[in-house]
Amino acid sequence: MINGDTIFALSTAAGKAGVAVVRTSGPRALDIAQDLSPNVPLEVGNIQYCGFQTPDGSIIDRGLRLIFHKPRSFTGEDCVEYHIHGGRAVIDKLLSVLAGHGLRPAEAGEFTRRAFDNDKLDLTAAEGLADLIDAETEAQRRQAFVQMEGHLGKLVESWRASLIGAMALMEAEIDFADEDLPDDLSQQIYPAITQVLQEIQNHLNDRQVGERLRDGVRIAILGAPNVGKSSLINALSQRDLAIVSDISGTTRDILEVHLDLNGVPVLMADTAGLRESDDAIEAEGVRRAQNRAQESDLRCFVGDKSKPQTFEGEGILDHFQEGDLLVLNKSDLLVSESGPTPSGTISISVKTGDGLDYLIECLSDRVKDIAWPSEAPRITRQRHRLSLQEVVHQLNDLLTHQDREVALRAESLRLAVRSLGRITGRVDVEDMLDIVFSDFCIGK
Fold it and tell me: Residue 28 in 3-state DSSP?
């Protein structure tokens, strides 16, 4: 990415649409805007209706032009947006003319990368913007918006500022050892360090809510063969995704479906029936089902209400945890009560639909408990978590060894500050920037 270039890109989705937006940014953006519409003076902050023409004077299209002077633009550079009709030929012609004027097509995420380079947003806000573009549920939108607004970055920077202040006292003791300084100067830092450490630990002990919300809460449907697991996932997704058969062992691999349960993204997995099998392929399916049970945030155990002791045997409840659901299917086949059932069991009939609404309500309540966003900023990426864990390690090391030489204690503090800086993009981030911004779509 070369920031001296003027770049352009289609910022709306590719294909035919009523309106398309083409964006330019860089030192030549205003000059090119004047060349495309020579009879319309540039007016910053106003929406201008213009004709856009080729170098020979022929009109490409008529639409709206928005001018943004630096630094009051998204990228911090001079920017121009062209709102034109969204036909493919119109878009292709305007992009071709911009390239003919010497502008360069933007790389993925380059507009946001320039905003970061020009201090318009920090790295966490840029990641929040990417998450907002990708958000598919209400909960994802809320979490991404909080992060895009800079709340996580501000929190991290407040911790960093506290540690920098503490580090200044230590550095003073090192640099001015011959001066008449208070003997306990460096000792004054420990209350502030302890507070920062406690706040970071509280955020790390969040059950990884932020990451779960970005990726989806994982739910595994488990049970013996032929209890209706595949029928249930078809009913919940309202699609015929899984093969349904009376033959035991039909499901041999994990089938996943993405759902939206009242705004929370869910990745639900249909698994092989849990039983002993001499069939190598079915046995592998059972092993994968057991592994998915261990990895999942929530397990939905399905049994057959028409058969007694439906949850016993084959280790079906070995993975049961507090908050998991017990579901008895085939309530429509029940002639008389077939025996006691565990407390809290939900009775349904996938065939008739009886009880499904209540099951969905229970599932929604569970996933909200696991991953509903709050107004407080969340850790949303593994790189955030790893950096904060390193901060905790360094601060614990510092507090545990307060009798060490001040230079060694200061080094622990410097490493903690550096780890916080990596989260917002303050230090040592060049290697990760291309990775972060390459996840963006072209034109953003």
Answer: coil
Q: What region, left, alpha or beta, does residue 337 occupy, with left being phi > 0 and alpha being psi -120 to 50 degrees? A: beta
Check: CB of residue 319 under 8 Å from CB of residue 290: yes
Closest by CA position to 330, among listed 218, 254, 237, 244: 244
CB of 388 within 8 A of CB of 204? yes
pLDDT in tens, 29-43: 999 999 999 999 998
pLDDT at residue 440, rounded to an integer: 57
pLDDT (tens digit, 9 = 90+) per residue, 150-204?
A: 999 999 999 998 998 888 877 776 665 555 555 565 567 888 999 999 999 999 9
- What is the arrangement of strands in the sheet containing 59-68, beginning at the earlier edge strand? 47-53, 59-68, 79-86, 17-25, 7-10, 104-105
Q: What strand order describes the sheet that includes 217-223?
A: 255-261, 264-270, 217-223, 298-304, 325-329, 346-347
Q: Which domains does the chain have, with CATH numbers?
A: 7-121 (3.30.1360.120), 153-206+381-424 (1.20.120.430), 214-371 (3.40.50.300)
Say if CB 204 and CB 392 are below 8 A apart.
yes
Q: In the Cβ-directed half-sphere of 405, how many Cα atoms lie within 13 Å?
A: 5
Q: Strands 325-329 and 346-347: what pairing?
A: parallel
E strand intervals along 143-297: 217-223, 255-261, 264-270
138 vs 317, higher pLDDT: 138
**Range scoring the smallest mean pLDDT among 12-26, 66-80, 170-184:** 170-184
Q: Are 301 and 311 contacting, i.e. CB atoms less than 8 angstroms apart?
A: yes
Query: Is omega for the bond preceding 71 within 30 degrees of 0, making it cis?
Result: yes
> Is residue 256 packed enough to be buried (19+ CB in 10 Å), middle (13-18) or exposed (0-12)?
middle
Instruction: Give the closest residue to 375 by CA, choosing from 164, 121, 145, 177.
Output: 145
Tokens of residue 89, six digits: 């030929």
Amino acid, single-letter form, for residue 115: A
Residue whose structure tokens are 């502030």 = 192
Amino acid 434: pLDDT: 57
- For the segment 324-353, the average pLDDT, to the nearest whole number, is 78
Q: Which helix (H) or strand (E) holds 393?
A: helix 382-400
* Residue 340: closest CA among 326, 356, 322: 326
pTM of the prediction?
A: 0.80
Q: Assign 51 to helix, strand or coil.
A: strand
What one-character-per-residue DSSP string does 72-140 give? SSSSSS-EEEEEEEE-HHHHHHHHHHHHHTT-EEPPTTHHHHHHHHTTSS-HHHHHHHHHHHH--SHHH
